């Protein structure tokens, strides 16, 4: 009966009252997901489907820990823990850590819970962990680009800049480069519509000139994210290929003499241990001389 309480109709109201995690933590939506449909979680058992639908509607930053979910949903912590593990096995959820670098050169690791409405296989999650955004193999219907839509709308906002469909298609790649360089739609509209001559004889030519001459500078290169995954059951950290379905070999009952891959390579660990021993030795010598 708990599944009936968590009906699709009640989900938006639940989600609007759901607690948020501390800034920087909580749910993170995976990129490049398919549009939401009524059948996104039809392949899951009823309880898991209801919980997945609820998580899907939560905003990024929502607290999706077992304790918080148990206070919001009609399930206990044990049932929720089992359900989340099944969502992880089905490819909708991964839990791990991500390194955040500061401007001063330091960094800290924070816990992450990545949720994907679209079920992903282990290879996809492994590529995501490396900072890549794999594309789905299923073809999608062609849609007008963000740049094409903005250009087509200019004529409604500023009639003197009305363009034909061919003009929009021709100018869209130039505008796409603005978005690539971090320009917002508001910045683009201001650059294209401010200080227009009267009258505008050739709107397409004028916009091409402005899109070319006022192009913002390129953004500085971004570093790929540092992400690691952890076992859904025991929390051990490991490489994605060592955690198929988000679970380590030990928790799957596959005993192995191999140990989980450490966060640092063996030479770095040995070097760190040598440095610590040397520091301790120097302190002993200094205390003896004193």
In short:
The chain is of the alpha+beta class and 290 residues long.
Net shape: extended
- Overall radius of gyration: 26 Å
Total strands: 5
Question: How many domains is the backbone divided into?
Answer: 3
**Helix residue percentage:** 40-55%
Low-confidence stretches: 1-5, 7-14
User: Which structural class do you get from the secondary structure elements?
Assistant: alpha+beta
Question: Cα distance, first to last residue?
Answer: 74 Å
Characterise this structure:
It is a single chain. The protein has three domains: 2-129, no CATH class; 146-213, no CATH class; 265-290. With 290 residues, it is an alpha+beta fold. The protein is 44% helix and 10% strand. 21% of the residues are buried.
Describe the secondary structure blueprint for this structure:
Blueprint: H1 2-5, H2 11-17, E1 27-29, H3 46-57, H4 66-72, H5 77-89, E2 93-101, E3 107-115, H6 122-129, H7 146-157, H8 165-180, H9 185-193, H10 203-213, E4 226-230, E5 237-238, H11 249-252, H12 266-289
Parallel strand pairs: 1-3
Antiparallel strand pairs: 2-3, 2-4, 4-5
Keywords:
alpha+beta, disordered N terminus
